[in-house]
Structure formats: structure tokens, C-alpha cells
Amino acid sequence: MTESNIDAANPEDLNESHAAAVDPGARIEFLEQELVRVEAEKQDLLRLAQSRQAEFENFRRRSERERQDTVDMAAAETVKTLLPIFDDFERAIAIETTDSNYAKGVMLIHNRMQEVLQKMGLEAINTTGQIFDPNLHHGIDMVETDEAEDQSILAEFQKGYHFRNKLLRPAMVRVAVKK
Fold first, then answer.
1. Cβ atoms of residues 125 and 161 within 8 Å
2. Within 10 A of 121 (CB to CB), how many other CB atoms are there?
3. Domains delineated in the chain
4. pTM of the prediction?
5. E strand residue ranges, the chain
6. Can you tell me the distance from the alpha carbon of 54 to that of 44, in angstroms, rounded to the nearest whole number?
7. What is the DSSP letter of 42?
8. What is the rounded CA–CA span in Å between residue 159 and residue 138?
9. pLDDT band at 18 (very low <50, low <70, confident <90, very high)
């Protein structure tokens, strides 16, 4: 093998076979350049790895948030379908009956259902003494009166609910307006 073949074939051959023939200053300069190149490559790979790690973390968080949103939507739809039944229980409780055991049974079922729905995240919207808020209330009747503050809620026809801090159903209310 000739000297030019050794140089072209493998840089390691340069280090071992011809160490004495190569200028030490040129070799140091070459190695310093190689070190700079390798350090730059290392930094590029490190930045790439950090970028991929950040992308993966963002993907993981986004996937978890989307999964939780899907679970919340499914739960909200389930609760929304149960609300008319819950309303029926409240209407049944409001009716007077001569059979006190029947009334107690209806009340127990209502209370148990209310506990379950509250554990799931259902909260009633308070309308008593409140000012009408179109984001929370659905005004279905307006009454002119001087006896109540303008835009105050006089009566509630149907309860409104939040589910996990989001409006599930607005309250249907009667609103006072000034003459």
C-alpha cells in the first residue's frame, strides 16, 4: 500500500503508520477541527433530542386533555339525559299525597340520585335573589313591577345546572322589569 492509499483509505492508518512522517502542528490543527465538528454535531443531536422530547411531552399532554374532554362530554350527555327524570322527581315531591310512605320513598330516590349527580360534578345554578344573566338564565317571562329590582329574577320555572364548571342547562326564569 502506498502512502496516498493509506491516507485515503482510513484516517486511523494516518495516526498509527505515519505518525512520524506527519507534521505534529498539522495533526493538532486537524484534530482540533475534528473536535469542533464533533462538538457541533453533538450539540445538534442534543437539540434534536430535546426538541423531540418536548414534542412528545406536548403530544402526551394534548392526548390526555383530549381524552379527558371526551370523558367529560360523554358524562355531560349522560347527565343531560337524566335531568328530565330528576326534574320529574322534584315535581313528584312537590305534590301532596296522603300516603306518607310513598312520599318518603320518592324523596329517598330523589336524594340518592341527587348525591350521585353531585359526585359526578352536577351543580344547581342559584337563581333566588339573583340578577338576570343571559349566560346562565333563560328568561321566558317578563313582569313589569315596581316591587322588585329591574332585571331581578322573580321565579324559577326550571332549574339550571353547571356540570364540571360548564353550563349544562340554563335556568328558565321569570324576570322583573321596571314599568
1. yes
2. 17
3. 124-179 (2.30.22.10)
4. 0.67
5. 122-124, 137-144, 153-158, 161-163, 166-169, 171-177
6. 15
7. H
8. 10
9. low
